[in-house]
Specification:
alpha+beta, 2 domains, two-stranded antiparallel ribbon, 235 residues, OB fold (Dihydrolipoamide Acetyltransferase, E2P), 21% strand, de novo design (two linked rop proteins)
Length: 235
């Protein structure tokens, strides 16, 4: 008999498969990122379909992951959101976050610190009161867990943030990857104070800069499908 395991996990993506099944990308606390299939949940009388949605934090029982899709035996909500799955702005930010995770994580092994970060982030998003800066902050904080942390060495001499090297440099002319002085200072202010006030243009340009930062540091990083929706919601 194939062995099963129990774990908490965050659902990154769900795809319809056959008439009643779903294929999912789930990051479990026990085994990291994996692909799973669950059968029968799209039947008309299914009482568990709402469990299997992107951003959900679930408790699952599944067969051990291998080379093929692992089968989910059962799952329930580990966390019940109050606003995240109902509020348009929160849902758009959460969708961006799991999209960023799905496109950034290359290692499929267990990572307790990364799992704790994504769980805490989604729970915090559900109750957060200040939302506008969160997408940029997610990018900054996730980079720490992925091994290419943004360095805040900003001062009067080092005023231009270089997207390729991940830190501030002395002159913008020395690198084609450097942000201008206005955006560089705005990024520094945000790292010093997560509630720093940014105008909409600066916020949009900084988020675009963070997407380029990820492209420079993750091979094969692709444009996020959730980004145009997020831009529209926050504009």
């Amino acid at each position: 008999m194939p062995k099963t395991f129990k774990s908490e996990g965050v659902i990154f993506r769900c795809l319809k498969y056959s008439e009643t099944s779903l294929i999912m990308d789930i990051y479990t606390q026990e085994y990291g990122l994996g692909s799973y299939i669950v059968s029968g949940v799209r039947k008309a009388k299914s009482s568990t379909l709402n469990v299997y949605r992107p951003m959900n934090i679930i408790d699952l029982v599944a067969y051990m992951p291998g080379e093929s899709l692992a089968r989910v035996k059962e799952a329930t909500h580990a966390v019940h959101y109050d606003q995240l799955d109902r509020d348009v702005i929160r849902a758009s930010i959460g969708t961006f976050f799991v999209d960023l995770l799905k496109n950034s994580i290359k290692e499929k092994e267990r990572n307790d610190a990364l799992y704790a970060y994504m769980r805490e982030t989604l729970v915090a998003l559900d109750s957060a009161t200040q939302l506008a800066n969160l997408p940029i902050l997610f990018c900054l904080q996730l980079s720490v867990h992925l091994g290419f942390q943004v360095m805040d060495n900003y001062n009067a001499e080092y005023r231009f943030f270089d997207l390729q090297v991940g830190q501030y440099i002395q002159t913008a002319e020395s690198s084609k990857y450097a942000l201008n002085d206005m955006l560089s200072e705005a990024l520094h202010n945000l790292m010093q104070d997560p509630q720093a006030k940014l105008d909409k243009l600066s916020r949009r340009l900084l988020l675009d800069a963070m997407m380029n930062y990820y492209k420079y540091h993750i091979e094969g990083f692709t444009d996020l499908r959730s980004l145009p929706v997020l831009r529209s919601i926050l504009s």
